[in-house]
Amino acid sequence: MRIVVVGPGRAGGSLAVAARTAGHELVGLYGRRTSSRLLADHLGVRLRLIGEPLPEADLVVVAVRDDALPEVAATLSPLADRVRGAVHLSGVTSVRVLDPLREAGLETGSFHPLQTLPGWEAGSRALPGAYVGITASEDWATELESLARSIGCRPIRVADERKALYHAAGGVAANYVAAALCVAEYMFREAGVDPAAARPMVEQAVANAFDLGFREALTGPISRGDLGTVRRQIEAVDRHAPAASEAFRVLTRLTAELAGRVEVEEILREAGRPPGGSTSPGPVPEGGGSS
Q1: Which of 136-140, 170-174, 184-188 has the lowest mean pLDDT?
Q2: Where would you tag: which of 133, 201, 217, 258 has the fewest CB atoms within 10 A of its CB?
Q3: Element of type H or E holding 50
Q4: CB-CB neighbours of 65 under 10 Å
Q5: Residue range 22-44: average pLDDT?
Q6: DSSP characters for 235-274?
Q7: Is the Cα dihedral 13, 15, 16, 21 positive or negative?
């Protein structure tokens, strides 16, 4: 494919490098700042400003922020008469945001890498093996699936009306795990233990979840019905790590529901409200990060 990338930030830059590595031809790189010159030099292309005419291409990738998509789509539409199709990289925004380009005769869709992309160098290396959520008409989606496979990704179809739900699920998977680990980090440090000691266990737990099933991989005192241990854990957190008390209760209740251990609810009621009477998880003090 001959590809143009508009908005060569973390996601757009990662895709540009991955596509170039896979043998696709990058025929244009468009941005609004000069901060992408390093990427342009790496790819051997000239960095142009958004609003300049687009070259002949099979695909224009609109990789700007979600709130900038309507304006950029409108700006590109009269400039894209030699472009066959367009996608944006947002996991939550409807493909209808590209209607100005569709009305100009382009195929439109979305191409969302389900992966964290911290920068174009690390991001391009992280793309192979990742899934890509594709939303488009049947024929265009088939071509986008081929593009995804060519860069080592695994395509999945996402209905336009379910994109926000799909994106929220990705946020839970990517960020709520890290949020729970932040709670654990604080508790480990209050116990005088380096949080890094949990890494082998966490890595195995994540592997088990995907290999065995999320509910089937649950272990520990809740899943085996060891109510005495659950009670002692709550008491210990309240006493020694009170800033984590409410978050610990929330996670305990969710785990019990998933494990089908309704009797845990009685222990939570007996334990009462956490210290300070908070009704929502309070801020967990920052740790130094695991080494």
Answers
A1: 170-174
A2: 201
A3: none
A4: 11
A5: 87
A6: HHHHHH-GGGHHHHHHHHHHHHHHHT-TTHHHHHHHH-SP
A7: positive
Q: Is 287 part of any domain? A: no
Q: Is the pLDDT of residue 90 over 50?
A: yes
Q: Are residues 36 and 144 located together in one domain of the fold?
A: yes
Where residue 214 falls (left for φ over 0; alpha for ψ -120 to 50; beta otherwise) is alpha
Task: Inform me whether the pLDDT recorded for 122 exceeds 90.
Answer: yes
CATH number at residue 196: 1.10.1040
Tokens of 265: 């609810």
d(CA 9, CA 15): 10
Angle, alpha carbons 204-202-198 (nearest 5°): 125
Reading the block at residue 70, the tokens are 């309507």
**37: helix, strand or coil:** helix
Report pTM: 0.84
207-253 pLDDT, tens digit per residue, is 999 999 999 999 999 999 999 999 999 999 999 999 999 999 999 99
User: Do 47 and 152 reside in the same domain of the chain?
Assistant: yes
